[in-house]
Amino acid sequence: MSTRKPYQLVSREWKSSDTVFEVNNVKIGLDLLMIAGPCAVENKEQIFTITEFLSKHNIKFLRGGAYKPRTSPYSFQGLKTEGLQLMRDAADKYGMSVVSEIMSSDKIEEFEEYVDIIQVGTRNMQNYPLLRTLGKSKKPILLKRGMSSTIEEWLLAAEYIVSGGNEKVILCERGIRTFENSTRNTVDISAIPLVKMLSHLPVILDPSQGTGVRDLIKPISQAAIAAGADGLIIEVHNQPEEALSDGDQSLFFDQFHHMLQPLNQLAHFQNRQFDYEKAAIEAGY
Ligand code: PEP
Ligand code: MN
Fold first, then answer.
1. What is the C-alpha to C-alpha distance for residues 110 and 99, in angstroms, rounded to an integer?
2. How many angstroms separate the CA atoms of 264 and 275, rounded?
3. Staple 83 to which of 79, 139, 160, 271, CB 3.0 to 4.6 Å?
4. Does residue 242 carry a pLDDT above 60?
5. 87: confidence class by pLDDT, cuts 50, 70, 90
6. At a CB cut-off of 8 Å and minimum separation 6, what does 50 contact?
7. Among protein residues, the one whose CA lies closest to atom 1 of ligand 1
8. Does the pLDDT of residue 276 top 80, yes or no?
9. Bridge-partner residues for 11, per DSSP?
10. How far apart are CA 58 and CA 165, in angstroms?
11. What's 72's DSSP letter?
């Protein structure tokens, strides 16, 4: 069978039912997937403090960059292997899963060892050798949309991974470049329902890279869930003003706490499981 689209295996024509797979008791593609954590792992105290806070809210997925694709070579580049090990230790202590960005194929063994969901960043969406390597992995892949990529190019990038044999791909809209410069990127909310029509793969939003502005995270997250997103990936920091990367878009703990209740209501409205509330109340928040 072939479809009329240039991509095939990721298309709705190829497979009409939503792709759902389970990680850490969360049915990705069905339940609301919430991934949260700092932009980058900075030190042991930082990552353990943030992980403990998230676990009290019953968040199951910890994000954090260990290999950071920074625009300037003089900016903090990440703790590399040590960063992955710290995230693994923190996540294991609190029963969480690790999400982190890979930048090159030669690190695949390290990521297979420490990471539960492997993130491909916006700058690497068209790194075809890397996509081919990830097609051979058993780990789920979080594939960001290239900042200047069309939806068709993004779905073709996913096709590289799926055609290699790895069907566990989560698409992530993270904003695109436009003439607008009062936000870091322009969040393409329409991409969410559109990609869900074109593809059976789960689609989530990264409002942190998408807007670059912490006060926009809550409303834009709500818009994404209302538009049918399968989840969110959000930057949270114990001391955003001191963060080594992306502090301006990182939520304070109390902001993260206060965005969960409305998201919970939206998730229920969409018949999606998002079971954070009881744990947060028990933790005294
Ligand atoms: C990030 O998640 O910190 C990141 C670098 O994302 P993106 O690739 O979307 O810029
Ligand atoms: Mn970031």
1. 13
2. 8
3. 79
4. yes
5. very high
6. 37, 38, 62, 236, 237, 238
7. 39
8. no
9. 199
10. 32
11. S
- Are 132 and 111 spatial neighbours (Cβ–Cβ below 8 Å)? no
Helix %, strand %, coil % of the chain (to 5): 40, 20, 40
- Number of Cβ atoms within 10 Å of the Cβ of 142: 28
Q: Tell me how far apart the alpha carbons of residues 197 and 33 are, in angstroms, rounded to a whole number.
A: 19
From CA 84, how far away is CA 82, in angstroms rounded? 5
Chain CA centroid to CA 283, Å = 25
What is residue 172's DSSP assignment? E
d(CA 225, CA 264): 10
Q: How many helices (H) and strands (E) does the chain have?
A: 10, 10
The reported pLDDT for the residue numbered 283 is 63
Task: Give the SS3 label for residue 146.
Answer: coil
Please write the tens of the pLDDT for every residue from 65-85: 999 999 999 999 999 999 999
Q: How far is the CA of 162 from the centre of ligand 1 (A)?
A: 22
234 forms bridges with which residues in the sheet? 36
Q: Note the pLDDT of residue 27.
A: 97
- Whether pLDDT at 31 is above 60: yes
User: Which residue matches tokens 């850490």?
Assistant: 24
Domains of the chain with bracketed CATH: 21-282 (3.20.20.70)
Using most ligand atoms within 8 A of CB, pick from 102, 148, 187, 209 the residue to mutate for ligand 1.
Answer: 209
